[in-house]
Amino acid sequence: MIEIRNLTRLYAGMPVVDDVSLTVERGQLLVLVGTSGSGKTTLLRMINRLVEPSSGRVLIEGVDTATLPAHLLRRRIGYAIQGHGLFPHRTVAQNIATVPRLLGWPRARIAARVEELLDLFQMDPAAFRDRMPHQLSGGQAQRVGVARALAARPDLLLMDEPFGALDPLIRAKAQADLKDIQRRLGTTLILVTHDMAEAVALGDRIAVMDHGKLLQDDRPARILTDPATPFVADLIGTADRALRLLSLIPVGAIAVPGEAEGAPIAPGATLRDALAECLWSGRSALPVEGGGVVTLDALRAQARHP
C-alpha cells in the first residue's frame, strides 16, 4: 500500500504539487490525470524520489521513503517513461536485465527472468533477445521498456505517459496488454496521463489534478457521472460520456437467457464493444459465449441509466 500524506513541492516558492494526500491499495491501478503543468508528473517522481518533496511524506507498506537511500528505493520501484527510454547500445536482454544485474542476481536467474518476461509480452526470446533497440517497432520497444521496469519483480510500478508516442492502434493494444499483465502479476501501478479516455480504460481509480491540487480521487464510473468540479467535468467532456461508461462494464454483467444469430461475443468484452458490433452488423441481439444474449435495447438502456 502507498500512502501519500500532505505532499508538496515548491519551485521558486510556488507550489507545483500542493498538499496532496491519497492512498493506493496493493494491486490497484491508479491513474493520475490532468493537463500539462497540473503537477501529476512531479507527484509521480516524488514517490521514487527523483524529485524530493518540499514537505509531506510518502509511505510504502508503512515505511517512510525518506528513511531509505534513494538509489536503493528506486531499485525496488519499477519506472517506465514515454518513449521507452531503452539504452541504445544494449540489447533487449541487456536492457531488461539492468536492475537485476545491479541487485547482483546470478546470471542464470537473470537469463530465466528475461525469457519469462519476453514470453509474457509475446516476444519470442530467440527472435528478440539479441536485438538492438533501433531494430524494434515502437510498440515492441515500449513493451521492452515495461518489461525492464518489471524485471526485478517490483511491488510498485510507476509509468509516466508510457503510450504517448504510440500511434492509436498500437496504443490501444499496449493499453490492453498492460492491464492484462498488471492483473496477472498483481502489481500496484500508478500511471500518469493527460488523456481521460486512457484513464477510464485503465484505471481502477482516477485522481484528477489541476494546478498542483488534487480535485477528485474516485472510481472511473463515479468521476464520469459525478465530477467534483467544473474542471473535472470539462476534462471528461460530454460528447462520449455514455460510451466511456459502457466501456467499464463487461457483457457478462447484463447478459440474459436467450438465443441470437451470428458470431458470439466474449462475456469479458465491454458493452461498448457489444454496441459497436450491434450497430455495425445491424443485429438487435448478440449471442454471448457460454450462453445467453445481450440485446441492443439493454445496451441503450445502460447508456442512459448507468
Description of the structure:
With 306 residues, the chain is of the alpha/beta class. The chain has two domains: 2-240, P-loop containing nucleotide triphosphate hydrolases (Rossmann fold, 3-Layer(aba) Sandwich), CATH 3.40.50; 244-303, Roll (CBS-domain). 39% of the residues lie in helices and 22% in strands. The chain has a six-stranded mixed beta sheet, with helices on both faces. It has a four-stranded antiparallel beta sheet with strand order 2-1-4-5. It is globular and about 60 Å long. It starts with a strand and ends with a helix. The model has no long low-confidence stretch (mean pLDDT 89).
List keywords for this structure.
single chain, 306 residues, alpha/beta, Rossmann fold, CBS-domain, 2 domains, 6-stranded mixed beta sheet, 4-stranded antiparallel beta sheet, 14 helices, ABC_transporter-like_CS, ATP-binding, AAA+_ATPase, transport
Summarize this, please?
The chain has helices at 40-47, 70-75, 92-96, 98-102, 107-120, 125-128, 138-150, 168-185, 196-202, 220-225, 230-236, 241-246, 271-281, 296-304, and strands spanning 2-11, 14-24, 29-33, 55-60, 63-64, 77-81, 156-160, 188-193, 205-210, 213-218, 285-287, 293-295.
Topology:
Layout: E1 2-11, E2 14-24, E3 29-33, H1 40-47, E4 55-60, E5 63-64, H2 70-75, E6 77-81, H3 92-96, H4 98-102, H5 107-120, H6 125-128, H7 138-150, E7 156-160, H8 168-185, E8 188-193, H9 196-202, E9 205-210, E10 213-218, H10 220-225, H11 230-236, H12 241-246, H13 271-281, E11 285-287, E12 293-295, H14 296-304
